[in-house]
Amino acid sequence: MIVEKYGGTSVADVDKIKAIAKHVADIKKRGHDIVVVASAMGKTTNALIQLAKEVGYANNDREMDSLLSTGEQQTVTLLAMAIEALGVPAISLTGYQAGFITSNHHAHARIKDIDLTNLKQQLDQGKVVVVAGFQGATENGEITTLGRGGSDTTAVALAAKLGWNCYIYTDVDGVYTTDPRIYPQAKRLEEITYNEMMQMASLGSGVLETRCVEIASKYNIQLYLGRALKTDLSKGTFIMETKHLEDMPITGISVKEDYAIMRVLNIENDGIYLGNLFQLIADLNINIDTISQQISKDNKINFTFYCNEKQSDLILQNYKEEEFGYKIERILGFVKLSVVGVGISTHSGIASKTLNTLTKNGIKYYQITSSEISISLTIEKKDKEKAVQVLAQAFDL
Amino acid sequence: MIVEKYGGTSVADVDKIKAIAKHVADIKKRGHDIVVVASAMGKTTNALIQLAKEVGYANNDREMDSLLSTGEQQTVTLLAMAIEALGVPAISLTGYQAGFITSNHHAHARIKDIDLTNLKQQLDQGKVVVVAGFQGATENGEITTLGRGGSDTTAVALAAKLGWNCYIYTDVDGVYTTDPRIYPQAKRLEEITYNEMMQMASLGSGVLETRCVEIASKYNIQLYLGRALKTDLSKGTFIMETKHLEDMPITGISVKEDYAIMRVLNIENDGIYLGNLFQLIADLNINIDTISQQISKDNKINFTFYCNEKQSDLILQNYKEEEFGYKIERILGFVKLSVVGVGISTHSGIASKTLNTLTKNGIKYYQITSSEISISLTIEKKDKEKAVQVLAQAFDL
């Protein structure tokens, strides 16, 4: 009993859809129950966004969600038809039909619950169920999308609710110690723990969003990440509770792009301003990152946080200086670099080795934060490639 | 307070969508409430059907409905965005969101009811509501489509339920006395009665489906049919209860293409066979046409009916000779020609003039049927153009 998820490049054309249908039909014929989650075909989503821009789209996320959701709906109906053409009964379900009930945060909705009644009935009738990724609906039937990595989240949430394993098929071979485009000698990891993966994901490794790994971890669902239609599972990465391999102190280096520093200076230390600011940020459904504040001698606060550039746009659009009483400043041009590994808490010297390596190579770092299994630094964009390379060499990744 | 409907060619590209948005926004700015119904953009539907065929589609109408419904969903979100970009609040609604509850006959569902709660709330908030044509959903949330002329039906049904007038904008100038492609001298009608239009529609005039006119007539909704963005209403055709013009005996000639004769010979005259056959046809949601039966001297029945070729395919696929006990025969290659006009019942000699004109020109006719306002004849496909021309001349159309 498995959930498989195919990303946009894996279903980009008719031949690929037919190849996946064949693979899925074979699994079903061998007697397994299978739910398939699919994204929109190839460049469909970008083409729809382009059309929206051309007609004059202006942040109307409610309409954009309804527009974009058609992409996945098209893929899953075609995939269901292709599976049926091979003599295996199949049915497609939109997010709404699959029971995905979400919050009403258009463009980045959260899954509140999944009502599996319909999906289970279809499985009981012996059908392969093909579910549109990335989408759901509010209780009022408004179509929503789940934001970045939404289709992965659809798959993992379904697997969690069903108690099945989840195979995420994509156009990369698995999780690497760092981005192979920046550091070609990067190695593929055969296994990685949920915690490490969450750090890698939230810190920008790009292959899986944190929320997916979070759900998998919470429900103890075994995740597999690998290249579509490569059936040799030793060629991908398993994400699980504990690794079987001997721990390396450092699992990888991840990079989070397009970082903005947001800064407010000389705030009264009465908690009112920060309360209002956090309320605004929560209303915008933004998770900010790396908050820091210093209190000056005259009991004023200097407050700084990081977020990505798009989120910073959203904050600036909604922040009314005359209402909040303070000027908010934005500084662009940063990336956040993280060294991740379960060994960090048990192997001493990782932090100093990281900082020394950067300093030795003339790379300036700004904010530093750390967790049990990660050390993160903000550096300037221009230093990104060099920093990844010198750290990867230093930690033998 | 008006419902406007735009067909696929009227929304075929971004520029056309923006032009319609401008027109709609202007109407709204002048203080009118407006609901817009739109079809899928240009060739979208055909492109989706092509994709479905390529993945191996085999009469899976449930999946096809879900696939095709995405076309209209894309148009209406884009149109809503384009209207909002002009500073006029707008919202798109899918068939489901607009409250269209249908039967579960996929590919040719019937509207059971429209729950206007959501749509009215949006209108009350001062929004232009843009509704996806051609689609609805069953009570179980299964996506359905309404079949040929579905978007027109969406518009007229909404107008009926709201009690508003309905403007159908398309790529023709209005209703003609006969098809201008066959008879270039055909004249545009400024007005036509519901009854005449229903005959014209059901008999194949191609510009409006019978069901739309039926609904308009039942709820006494004034229909207008004209070219998109031509705002001079004297250039189209009004469809209404009674005409203001002096009646011409004949309003027009319509042609229904691709006719099949279905025939069963020597049936026992006990009603069992015909009961079973009509049950099958009803289950397939097919309206058959021009039924005739003759009883022979030995009390056996010869039974004949007409339907279009696609429907005849469907019947043959589902008709099991061993179950029904009789062989069903199909003869292809016919069209049905109809002379329509409220004058037929009051002007004598129309039938004889029709038949004489055909005979004089060497055109054979088969089945003849007539109503208060029409005379219909089945003729061979090859005679179509000639028959239309000689009749149009004979009746000065």
Automatic annotation (TrEMBL), chains A, B:
Q: Which N-terminal stretch is annotated as signal sequence?
A: none
Q: In which pathway does it act?
A: Amino-acid biosynthesis; L-methionine biosynthesis via de novo pathway; L-homoserine from L-aspartate: step 1/3; Amino-acid biosynthesis; L-threonine biosynthesis; L-threonine from L-aspartate: step 1/5; Amino-acid biosynthesis; L-lysine biosynthesis via DAP pathway; (S)-tetrahydrodipicolinate from L-aspartate: step 1/4
GO terms under cellular component? cytosol
Keywords, alphabetical? Amino-acid biosynthesis, ATP-binding, Diaminopimelate biosynthesis, Kinase, Lysine biosynthesis, Nucleotide-binding, Transferase
- UniProt superkingdom: Bacteria
Q: Where does substrate bind?
A: T45, E72
Q: Where is the ACT domain?
A: 262-342
GO terms under biological process: diaminopimelate biosynthetic process; homoserine biosynthetic process; lysine biosynthetic process via diaminopimelate; threonine biosynthetic process
Q: What NCBIfam families does its record include? A: asp_kinases (TIGR00657), PRK06635.1-2 (NF005154), PRK06635.1-4 (NF005155)
Indicate what this protein is called per its UniProt record.
Aspartokinase
